[in-house]
Amino acid sequence: MEAANLSVAATGVALPLASEACSMGPSPGGVVGSTPGGAALPGREPPFSVFTVLVVTLLVLLIAATFLGNLLVLVTILRVRAFHRVPHNLVASTAVSDVLVAALVMPLSLVSELSAGRRWRLGRSLCHVWISFDVLCCTASIWNVAAIALDRYWTITRHLQYTLRARRRASALMIALTWALSALIALAPLLFGWGEAYDARRQRCQVSQEPSYAVFSTCGAFYLPLGVVLFVYWRIYKAAKLRFGRRRRRRAVLPLPATVQVEEAPQEAEVVFAARRPAVAFQMSGDSWREQKEKRAAVMVGILIGVFVLCWIPFFLAELISPLCACSLPPIWKSIFLWLGYSNSFFNPLIYTAFNKNYNNALKSLFSKQR
Q: Structure pTM?
């Protein structure tokens, strides 16, 4: 996870915007200035271009929307008693990590983007705090997505064995492991001397560039949970396809008259239930409600995983390849990949509320009470 620099050309003036990756800080560089004749002078900051102002405005809006969206999810869970149970504690854990990303990580990353000379001037202690929270919060957000996918998978495929008590235990264990693993990845350089984040001479703040740590951190923070969510969604897809095939076979059997159905009851178990029309109607209604609920859960997990992969895979591919091959992408692409990954924390609460009617009703009642 490496620092990125976003350079914008405007009338012969280069405007550096250093970016911070989910586990990286800004790289060193010089301040670029200009004279009326176009010559560059060190030590002077050029004025911001219109394009730069627009980009910064969009990033500020992204930070504010990410913070408010996840904070609203947390307030809803705290205010509604029905949400004080599984699986909403997993959603709450994800919202906490995303709120911290918006409150502690993204603002300092934006400051780093705009810093003159692309240098870290906030000191060694704040550098370590920033980098540690960056890795901790982003990793926790990613692993929380994997935990939600696992919970939905067990709910769909093992709805009889996966009782409320079992879900509480499993979710508490997953949350504890998520934050413990995230803390280990974030604090490993400080605990085990796995590189230094701050370079006082060059005023550079970034996570250790040791290739071994790059492999450890990227695999633990992304590639391992990516494998989990892809496996889970594949199993959910297979289970849904199997149930759809069974439902089609059941519908292919034409209903017989009641008298014939009663006579054939010894050979066909389903016929006995078919003769009891009220019971059949109730059972069909129950199956339909459960199937619709499982379908919504499967669609939600699919979109959650799809957005998660699209947001983070470009960044982590670059962060794994760069230290190993001693090569580097153009700065503008590093910044794009970085903020695309951050945007996953913005999309998460939107996906939860869009596919959960309880959240929609709770939000409406919350705003109506405020009025």
A: 0.74
